[in-house]
Each structure stands twice: as structure tokens, then as C-alpha cells.
Write a structure and sequence with these properties.
Distance between the termini: 38 Å
Structural class: mainly alpha
Number of helices: 7
Oligomer: single chain
Radius of gyration: 16 Å
Shape: elongated
């Protein structure tokens, strides 16, 4: 299965409309709008013509990000401000869900060493918690790239 199909496999339409309590609906709207353009795996696949790549590798440079952002017909400064507002909300919600999942799974709060699986924290968490953690982590990665791109062209 190539990387594009892997992304589509776990980021279904449900990922864009999934209601995660405490996350504004417009965050899912922005995710749907930006995911195809600012997703690191998707871009790396297209740029390097590889079938497997880490979510954080390769990092996009400023030239790539500004070129992508300039394709959007928006007020770039306004978009950057909105993404700056949303990113901490995603972080806070990820931390809340991960804390709850860890306590439910192990009966104690997580420690630094508890983080074992990128994006979700631990593979023993419930499927619903893993789904929400994965979605939030992916949203944040896409938003960070979009934010930098909009900042560069504003």
C-alpha cells in the first residue's frame, strides 16, 4: 500500500467531521482545506517519489511552505492568526485525552517515559482514544506547516 493510500486509510471523511469535544468545528474545516497541501507525508511522497517516510521527515523548507500558502486566495495574516489560536487548543485537547486514556489503561498519570507511540502515546489505549489522538496530532502537524506558510507570505 503506498503512502497516499495509508493516509486516506486512517484519515477518512470522519476525520474531518469527527466531533472531538472542545475542538472548534472550524478546526476540522481548516484541516480538510489544508491537509492535502500541507501534509508532510503526502508532500514527501510527491517530492521524493518514495513509498515510506516518517511524519516528521523531511521537514519542509520556507520556500516550499510559502509557495504552497500562496496558492490559497485568503488573507494570509488573518489565516496565520487563526491557526495560532487553534494550535494550542489542539495541544490542550490532545493532552487531556492522553491523560484520560493513560489513567483508564494503567490507573496512573503518564510520565515522560510513558510516551511510546508517535501521535497516540501508547498502543494499549482504546481504539476511540487512539483515533482522536491520531487526528489531533495530524491536525497540529498540518496546521504548523500552514501557519508557517501563511506567515511567510503575509
Amino acid at each position: 500500500m503506498n503512502i497516499i493510500k495509508k493516509i486516506d486509510h486512517y484519515l477518512t471523511e470522519d476525520s474531518y467531521t469527527n466531533k472531538i469535544e472542545g475542538v472548534p468545528k472550524n478546526a476540522f474545516d481548516y484541516f480538510k482545506m489544508y491537509q492535502k497541501d500541507f501534509d508532510v507525508k503526502d508532500l514527501a511522497f510527491k517530492k521524493l517519489n518514495v513509498s515510506k517516510v516518517s511524519i516528521n521527515s523531511p521537514f519542509l523548507d520556507d520556500k516550499q511552505l510559502s509557495k504552497i500558502a500562496s496558492k490559497f486566495d485568503v488573507d494570509h495574516a488573518k489565516q496565520a492568526m487563526e491557526l495560532k489560536r487553534l494550535i494550542p487548543i489542539l495541544d490542550k485537547k490532545w493532552n487531556e485525552i492522553q491523560m484520560k486514556a493513560h489513567v483508564e489503561t494503567y490507573g496512573e498519570k503518564p510520565t515522560f517515559g510513558s510516551y511510546k507511540v508517535s501521535g497516540i502515546g501508547d498502543s494499549n489505549y482504546s481504539e476511540e482514544d487512539k483515533k482522536q489522538l491520531r487526528t489531533l496530532a495530524h491536525m497540529k502537524a498540518v496546521f504548523v506547516n500552514a501557519l508557517r506558510g501563511h506567515e511567510l507570505v503575509s
